[in-house]
Amino acid sequence: MSTLTISVGPQHPGSGHFRLIVTLDGDRIVDAIPDPGYVHRGEEKLAEYRNYIQNIPHFERMGLHDANNMMFAYVNAVEHLMDLKVPERADYIRVIMAELNRLIAHLYYTAITGIFVGHSTMFMWPVGDRELFIDLAQMIAGQRVSYAFILPGGVRNDMPEEVKKKAEKACDYFEKRLVEYDKLLMNNPLFERRAKGVGILTKQDAIRLGVVGPALRASGVKFDVRRNDPYSVYDRLDFDIPVSNDGDTWARVWVHMEEMKQSMRIIRQALKQIPTGPVKVNLRGQVRVPPGESFGRAEASRGEISYYLVSDGGRFPYRLRVITPSFRNMIAMPYVLKGMVLADMPPSYWSLDYWPVEADR
Amino acid sequence: MTETPKVEPKLPERGKKIAEDITAKFGGDLVSIDVKLRRIKMKVKANRIMDAASYLNDNFGYDHVISVSGVDYLKDNEMEVVYHAATYGNAELSDLVIALAARLPRDNPKTPSLIAVWPSAEYAERETFEMVGIVFEGHPKMERLILPEDWHEIPPLRKDYRNPGR
Amino acid sequence: MSQIRTFNDFLKRIAIVVGALVVILAVIFGILVFTVPQVKAFNNLLLASFSNPRLMLDFLDRHGVGFNSLLFRVVVFPGFTWAALIAAEVIWFERKFLAKMQVRVGPLYAGKIAGLLQPIADVIKLLFKEMISPARSDKLIYYSVPVLLMAIGSALLAIIPVSEAWLIMRSDVSVLAIFAVAGFGPLVVLLAGWASNSKYPFIGGLRGLHQLVAFEIPMLVSVLGIVLAAGTLDMVNVVQAQSSVWFVVLMPLGAIAFFCCMLAELERLPFDMPEAESEIVVGYMTEYSSMAFGNLQGLAAYIRFYAMAGIFTTLFLGGWHGPQILPAGFEIAQQVEWFTIKTLAVMVLVIILRGVAPRYRMDLLLRMGWARLLVLAFVNLFLVLLIIQMGWFPIKVGV
Description:
heterotrimer, B: alpha/beta, Beta Polymerase, domain 2, 7 strands, 28% strand, globular, disordered N terminus, C: mainly alpha, 17 helices
């Protein structure tokens, strides 16, 4: 058997900053080995040289369009160790920001799915519609991408009241757009032919490999940290967890589409329920974390992100271990890609929620 | 199909019961066990880590690993390897993360790879190997994952590694 | 002279060089006019013809470059320049139109009005880029591929009757000539992939070969119906046979099959697998740079696009026929205008498809080519045969 080995990446329009060593037999993929590390920043080591507040901006860099969710798990870990209760209003603002970020990241995901199947319109539309939510996030946090907004003890600033009206308008508009996305991509016969039944990740494999996020839920496992290990005020909000039993590329994209609807539902509820009051605890000087260990997790847009924090009571964390959803989903890549044709490789690997910057940390 | 959000009573009793089970099973080999609301940290002797993992997997349905971490305790001249395990299959315990830890000698940190029990640990173990220098015996591919191929210094997350420019 | 620092300096330099050349040539010509009698006679004729257009035409005709000469037809209209202009215009239109579909603005700055000169700006940019060839590539084949692809596209132009009077080459078998010329396509694509000595172009070349070969046969069969109906292999006669009713009405199945095959032959979305950028970069063009790439991706591709759209118009949409809108005496102009409008309409249809369809997959595409389109083309052929046999055909068979 003669095979052809090609390096997809790191300079390739269909890869991010990572390499996928693909072995082909004809047009079939025999083996696909991910080779990450091209955008490794050493976040864990950096964290050991920075105090608890300074760590926030550089952890956000792991998943820029998912910055608030990256921070959510971190502050969960820090606050748990400090035994800190944040004001209720801050909790709601955090949830709103986290869900806005989920929308932004899912729209990015949809866009790249579109371009990976060669659908340039499906790339441009979601990228354009992302502006809606980026603008909203900017109104709340003052920044468009990297917010540094969620801090131990609350959020950096209060949100203006007109966000409520604008968010309502944006959600109304975007619900209409989602119908058009369905027409253009999800129910497009060409996309269905290419994505249904392709890149199947079975339920057993998904559980065994510890896959997270939408990829896990598309394989039929109903697990969402927001529901299964509720943090912040997620246990007071009403939302569904979309689950599909197909486990193929189409199902994974579908789960993202449904989650966007749920995110808008959460934002609407949170904006209705949000109480008035302070938005942060005054921590007086530098944040000091008592010695001990804590494990914070949150549901980022790509799946479960977790921080394992070991503190010795000093100014800096003693050890901070970050595990991102992309890193955990990378393990499923060979299982999903094996046996498919080369043309299905980019949409399938992307549908697993793999983002190189996040995986390398 | 609207689910009403229900606030389950996350009883620390449940965690305590599991802790009792673990203590009964491992007895003297259990170095320490620490129960919090939704987290349990159990530290076992290094030679029993495989048994502990299988025990968690078989009895409580802990089917995957969230993270594998290595912590360098320079003062104690020891290293700690920590597996954070969780479960998808057992819905009742899905919020309870069990950290399974073991202390290893710092000069020669070796521990059996838990891939046989938890295949999801594969890449995390590889990363721990290159970042902290803990060798996982029996791992099929104990190689560099993220660090550059020409990395020639000690594993960077050890405490005696000095960042250049710091 | 001063050093070139900005683009303006560059334009100035070009103006100076061209101006100097004009002055020098004028001086030489002036000297020759007063010394050589033949040149003097030529000069007098030239001066006279400037005052009288008819004399000018005669003058051009006499020297073999007039409107009726073959050279004019090949080079200017309806040959290369015309096609290249349409290609440039369609490239601009495609970008602007797709941008509107995708809620963008598209080209905006070059050319003041809606980025009209963007294609030209792109060509200038590409011309000044360095041409790089991969190490150990087969240089001769590597560099001849852009030329060959351009040649294939341009050769197709020769047989398209833009109007009764404007046709580069009339042949008894011009329908067959389409396939004779287009049949080179797969070979060139394969050569491009092979000569680049690189993996992605190689995969792209193989894909191109598979795809083009798979769609050649359904294409040929779908045209057979027309040949039977018109009773001729001459494109001009095919158009004349459609004076009362277009073939697209008589054989819609054949038109659909031909249109799909055309998309595949042109490597346009949804069938652009040979250049699928998300998996194999740009396929067989990956290693090309500078104007060679601009030629493959832009000019040659779009001239081929125009040619195939023109062939579709000629075969199925009645060529130059159309309701009279211009006053009598302008029949030829009207024929050209109808042909152009129809061709552009076909091209717009193809461009719309690019906006709404994702890329298909190779195995599905081949199955479609061999199993669906071929069957469709044969069904079409048998229906045409049946209709002819039963004598239901609305037009006279065999012009």
